[in-house]
Structures are given as C-alpha cells and as structure tokens.
Amino acid sequence: MKHLAAGVAAAILLGAGGLTARADQAAVAPPQGSTPLLELVADGVQIYTCETKEGGFTWSFKAPEANLFDIQGRQVGAHFAGPTWKLEDGSEAVGEVVAKADAPEPQAIQWLLLRAKSHQGSGALSAVAYIRRTETKGGVAPSTGCDAGHLSQQARVRYSAVYQFFSAAK
User: Fold this and answer.
1) DSSP letter string over 36-96?
2) For residue 107, which phi and psi values (nearest 5 degrees)?
3) Which end of the chain is more exposed for a tag (fewer CB within 10 A), N or C?
4) How far is the C-alpha of 167 from the C-alpha of 33, rounded, in Å?
5) Phi-psi region of 97 (alpha: psi -120 to 50; beta: other; left: phi over 0)
6) At residue 16, what are phi and psi to the nearest 5 degrees?
7) Is the whole-model pTM more than 0.70?
8) What single DSSP character describes residue 5?
C-alpha cells in the first residue's frame, strides 16, 4: 500500500505542471517576499457529514484526513482537523484560510492560502507563516445521498493536493 501511495504522489507531482497555467495561482499566492520552505503531496480523504440546513439536507465539511509525502514519495507526516499539518520531526502547524480560488478541475476542491495561526515543535514547520493548497484532485462533497435517512452519516471523499509551506515575508 505504501508503494501505491508513493506512486500516486509521484504521478501527482509529474502531472501537476499542466494544471498550473489554467488556475489562478495569484489568488492564493503568499505575500510578496515569502520564501518557499517545503512542498508536500497529500493523499487522503475530505470528510463530510450529512446535516440539516435551512429546512433541507446538506453535506457539511468536517475535516481532512491525509498522509503527506515528500518529493521522493516517502511518507513524512499527516494532515488532519484544525486544519493541522504534522511532520515526523515533531513539528506541527495549524492554519486558517485567508484566500480561496476555484480549482481548474471541476470535481476538485478549492485551492487555498492559509495563514499559520499556531505551531508546535522546532522542526520543519516551526518557521511556516503560510500554507498554499494547489493541484487538487477530487474531494468535493457528494451531490446526492444526504437526506433524512442518512442524517449524521459521514462521506469520505478521496482527494490529493500539493501543499506548499512558506516563511513570513522578509
């Protein structure tokens, strides 16, 4: 399974270049003067829960759950609720969304720019000020299946993305 995930990560990295030209990277760009620190590929799921809203039913986003891979395809961490990124070196960053852009792929979750609002540990994520999610595939909430008979049930929708970590602007 680990080799499959590494292959997926490599395929995402190799195929990512073609999407860049069609997407609005400027909408989710970190502030000018920010320095790239790290780039990781996420492979996992976006978790949604069926809830009532405004007299109807809807899938509401709850959390991501993904493994993080380096450019060589080695698993180096995890991404989960918060949203939080945690690496094997013990460092952790929690972010908050500051900008969004529609993904170029129709069934892909949005591209995001997040600001790091807290850190733990002294590893690679300790100096992160911004996190950018791009090159997304999948992850969009289901369009059907949320009704009275499925209230409180979860849907786990497969996704992948590239996460880029940046320092504060100098």
Assistant:
1) EEEEEEEEEEEEEEEEEETTEEEEEEEEEEEEEE-TTS-EEEEEETTTEEEETTS-EEEEE
2) -100, 30
3) N
4) 9
5) beta
6) -65, -35
7) yes
8) H
Which position has the token pair 């986003």? 61
Place of tokens 């073609």: 18
What size, in residues, is the chain? 170
Tokens of 105: 């792929």
Structure tokens at 63: 């959390």
Neighbours of 96 (CB within 10 A): 12
* Look-up of token digits 């270049």: 17
Distance CA 17, CA 155 (A): 30
Alpha-carbon separation of residue 158 from 1, 27, 141 (angstroms) = 15, 25, 10
pLDDT tens by residue, the chain, 170 residues: 444 344 434 333 334 444 444 556 788 999 999 999 999 999 999 999 999 999 999 999 999 999 999 999 999 999 999 999 999 999 999 999 999 999 999 899 999 999 999 999 999 999 999 999 999 999 999 999 999 999 999 999 999 999 999 999 88
Is 116 within 8 Å of 84 (Cβ atoms)?
no
Instruction: For residue 118, give every residue at least 6 positions away whose Cβ sits within 8 Å of its Cβ, in sequence order, or none.
Output: 93, 94
